[in-house]
């Protein structure tokens, strides 16, 4: 089987027209690869175009403040990617004079760049013969070669990387790597792969053994944690509210939210008002409280589900240090908060 030849012929006839495939600029390749981690191209493409327009060079991205970066990233998820992106841009701009490393080993030393991203940049921008292994590659190789080693284990990582390196077209690693990822994304899909018209149908061991749906093998994740959020949406007489910035190492660090009370279960109104956290956050006795949604909003993350209630706390007094509801859309917020604001704010505030 001439693996690379079959793959390349398929790719040249089926590849999508994507902006980062028209350049070898390491800044643009790096940006696209970071954005597309854990993200479908259909979702990531508009963000990529927004970032390139706002920050056409690594110097522009480095000069931005963190809130600008997080606001443009808002809704893309996995916000540590945005923070690492900004940090690396500053390092490249300031310490490396805007020039990205030109090899796999040095690229991998940059913050937020692991084996996959370093391999992609090195091969696409500099023709270094290093194989890329992502979710699409795992799926394609596990099926064609009938590999049952779990892909989310150290043994699996090593086995698939070694195989990808052996198959790699060392004369044109850029095309090969992009072709292999594209083949997994468009043809050898997780569900309903196009097996009847597959260029590898005569060689695919999983197809021969009818094991397509069983591969790749992945060890099940740990149990999903349930969390209970109570957001206090302060509404003062002068049309202002309060926001707080999330700190620490948990989810959404650096993003803004309404004052939050996290509880061990879903709270009823009386339970919320009688809690120490509520009394600490709401010092006034002149307020009314109303739950915005009739049932909790369930926001699902990779390892946790957030059962969220938005409580509108209306005050009779004005706020001296609040934020106008008209300006609230300027702040970077989690998509959970953004969705609430889209329902809560009047049209002329959006």
Structure notes:
With 350 residues, the protein is an alpha+beta fold. The chain has 2 domains: 3-131 and 157-186, Endonuclease III, domain 1 (Orthogonal Bundle); 225-349, Nucleoside Triphosphate Pyrophosphohydrolase (Alpha-Beta Complex), CATH 3.90.79.10. Helix content is 41%, strand content 13%. It has 15 helices and 9 strands. Strand 7 and strand 8 form a beta hairpin. It is elongated. The model has no long low-confidence stretch (mean pLDDT 94). It is an enzyme of class 3 (hydrolase).
Sequence of secondary-structure elements: HHHHHHHHHHHHEEEEEHHEEEEH
Tally of DSSP helical segments: 15
- What is the number of beta strands? 9
CATH topology of the largest domain: Endonuclease III, domain 1
Integer count of domains: 2
Mean pLDDT: 94
Mass-distribution shape:
elongated
Main β sheet profile: 5 strands, mixed
The rounded Rg comes to: 24 Å
Strand composition percent: 5-15%
- What is the CATH first-level class name of the largest domain? Mainly Alpha
CATH homolog superfamily of the largest domain: Hypothetical protein, domain 2
* CATH architecture designation of the largest domain: Orthogonal Bundle
Helix content: 40-55%
- Distance between termini? 57 Å
Show unreliable segments.
Answer: none
Function: Adenine glycosylase active on G-A mispairs. MutY also corrects error-prone DNA synthesis past GO lesions which are due to the oxidatively damaged form of guanine: 7,8-dihydro-8-oxoguanine (8-oxo-dGTP).
Organism: Christiangramia fulva
Cofactor: [4Fe-4S] cluster
Family: Belongs to the Nth/MutY family.
């Amino acid at each position: 089987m001439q693996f690379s030849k079959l793959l390349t012929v398929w790719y040249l006839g089926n590849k999508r027209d994507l902006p980062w495939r028209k350049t070898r600029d390491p800044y643009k390749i790096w940006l696209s690869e970071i954005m597309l981690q854990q993200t479908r191209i259909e979702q990531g493409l508009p963000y990529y175009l927004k970032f390139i327009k706002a920050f056409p060079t690594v110097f522009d991205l480095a000069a931005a403040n963190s809130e600008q970066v997080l606001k443009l990233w808002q809704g893309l998820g996995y916000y540590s990617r945005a923070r690492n992106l900004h940090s690396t841009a500053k390092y490249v701009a300031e310490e490396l004079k805007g020039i990205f490393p030109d090899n796999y080993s040095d690229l991998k030393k940059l913050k937020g760049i692991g084996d996959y991203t370093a391999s992609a940049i090195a091969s696409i921008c500099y023709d270094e013969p290093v194989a890329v292994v992502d979710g699409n590659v795992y799926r394609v190789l596990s099926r064609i070669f009938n590999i049952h080693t779990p892909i989310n284990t150290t043994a699996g990582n090593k086995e698939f990387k070694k195989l990808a390196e052996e198959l790699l077209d060392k004369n044109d690693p850029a095309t090969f790597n992009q072709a292999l990822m594209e083949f997994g994304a468009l043809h050898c899909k997780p569900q309903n792969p196009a097996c009847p018209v597959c260029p590898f149908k005569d060689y695919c061991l999983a197809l021969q053994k009818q094991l397509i749906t069983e591969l790749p093998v992945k060890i099940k994740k740990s149990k999903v944690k349930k969390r209970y959020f109570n957001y206090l949406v302060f509404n003062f007489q002068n049309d202002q509210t309060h926001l707080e910035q999330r700190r620490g190492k948990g989810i959404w660090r650096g993003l803004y939210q309404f004052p939050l009370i996290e509880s061990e279960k879903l709270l009823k109104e009386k339970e919320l008002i009688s809690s120490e956290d509520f009394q600490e956050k709401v010092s006034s006795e002149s307020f009314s409280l109303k739950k915005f949604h009739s049932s909790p909003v369930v926001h699902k993350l990779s390892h946790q589900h957030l059962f969220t209630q938005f409580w509108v706390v209306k005050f009779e007094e004005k706020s001296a240090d609040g934020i106008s509801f008209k300006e609230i859309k300027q702040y970077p917020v989690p998509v959970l908060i953004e969705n609430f604001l889209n329902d809560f704010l009047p049209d002329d505030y959006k």
